[in-house]
Amino acid sequence: MSLSTEDIKDANIKYHDAAADEYDAKWGIDYGPIGKTQVALKTRKVLGREPSFARALEIGSGTGYFSLNMMQNGVIDEVVCSDISDGMLKVVDRSAEMLGFSDRVTTLHTEAEEFPFEDESFDLVFGHAVLHHLPDLQASFDEFFRLLKPGGMIFFAGEPSATGDRLARHPKTAGHRLSPLWRRALRVRRASEHAASNGNGAARDAAYEEGHAMEHLVDVHAFKPGDLTDFAKTAGFDEVRVVGEELSANWFGWFNRALEADGLPEDIPNVWRQYAYRGYLGFQWFDRVALEGRLPASIFYNLMIGARKP
Ligand SMILES: C[S@@+](CC[C@H](N)C(=O)[O-])C[C@H]1O[C@@H](n2cnc3c(N)ncnc32)[C@H](O)[C@@H]1O
Prior knowledge:
- It is a single chain.
- The longest helix is centred in the middle third of the chain and has 25 residues, at 162-186.
- This protein has a single domain (5-308), classed as Vaccinia Virus protein VP39 (Rossmann fold), CATH 3.40.50.
- The protein is α/β, with parallel strands linked by helices.
- It contains 11 helices and 7 strands.
- Helices cover 54% and strands 17% of the residues.
- The N and C termini lie far apart (40 Å).
- Residues 196-201 have low confidence and may be disordered.
- The protein binds S-adenosylmethionine.
- The site of S-adenosylmethionine (SAM) has 20 residues, from helix 1, helix 3 and strand 4.
- S-adenosylmethionine binds at residues 9, 12, 16, 60-62, 65-66, 83-85, 88, 111-112, 127-130, 133-134.
């Protein structure tokens, strides 16, 4: 099925508005030491050891994971969090207030191709897990270029690589196949059946099916490193650098997610959750010290890009 630009944007608004309230819990978004460290490690890989930017713009900020942790880490002083989903932006406002950042964080409902700001308004334009949702990437990169001051930078992380995504299908398939055994071993009931027995089954099944169908509509790209380089260079950026991160961590993470996918969340034992989370951090460390920088960017699960406006 081929979708128009407007269809993709509509699907994104619907999907992310519906996800907003549960988003932080679902993805483990955290503003304590773990969240701060996770974001610091990513910024360091592309922006260097102690980056600092006065005025920044986040594209597709979601609930504010990157902006608020970058602010806690002292990387940015002031930020505009932009997103196409009002549901997500409401959560940004709440979390900024909770962290005492309301005077330095503003939210803006907009699409990633056209911003109501003058040329050269920002020192940094950044985002996490957003480029793969954008229908017209060249238009977006051109707009990022316009918005930056000379010497300003772009930084995007968490973008799926085409090869990394293909490789990750193997642990996903293995996890799905083994999931009935896993549920039996850990005495975890099947979410859909349990919901059916208490009368919510049809609604929950429909929501689950719709969520899955929507994922295919909102995830419109997986990249080769060269694709990202080309968008940046065509827009006029210099010093373009694309790096890959997370390989074994993602296989481990996707395998566990697939095992858990149809389990009733309240039945999943805490000790399992701890194992899955700490294991993921352990594999992330292994990727960082043993694999990243040694293997080609394209085989990692996530790509990051940094570049400078001349
Ligand atoms: C996967 S989420 C990532 C959110 C956040 N950056 C994070 O890392 O948690 C992608 C975000 O991009 C937003 N988005 C999707 N399409 C967009 C568009 N065309 N313009 C602006 N934002 C968009 C979605 O609403 C969503 O909040």
